Amino acid sequence: MDTSLLPALALFALASSITPGPNNMMLLASGANFGFRRTLPHMLGVAIGFTLMILLVGLGLMQVLEMYPAFAMVLKGAALLYLMWLAVKIARAGAPAGAGDGAQKARPLTFLQAAGFQWLNPKAWGMALSALAVYAPGHDLAATAAVAAVFGAVNLPCISVWTALGQNIRRLLATPARLRAFNIAMALLLVASTLPAILA
Prior knowledge:
Blueprint: H1 6-18, H2 22-67, H3 69-92, H4 101-104, H5 111-117, H6 122-135, H7 141-168, H8 176-199
Helix pairs in contact: 1-7, 2-3, 2-5, 2-6, 2-7, 2-8, 3-8
């Protein structure tokens, strides 16, 4: 990769990482419900999982998707099912005691759950495929690694902002009714932020 393209790649990574999407909606909700520290594994799962995804897609999975379009349809179906499960999980997070077993067992996503979600996240696929097509069109190892490294450096600070924002609005969500309303709104925003890409 021509090093003169690195500033443009960094700006692309910044713009795509900081804007609303499934990861950021989930991190906002997790920060509000569980705080910054408990959300750290979720954040690291997003950042490291997405960086690894870029590497693997750039080094061959992009060609697999082009050769087997049916696989993309299976991926969309799996994404939709997982998305609905996550929306329910968010809607029930932080519910008042006595609201049901699922509410009392609510906890942030783990590192592996967050990393795995990148493979079912339509925005993550869009970001990875766009970045690789523009900045590593030859799919060579050096260019692909450069794209992954830039996203790895930019992504974590960006998603941290959403988690911190969630933690800072916890004071506004002090009552069970407000927290429940917030969680339901976040679940709906998660679905709304993903469905257009899934249904396209």
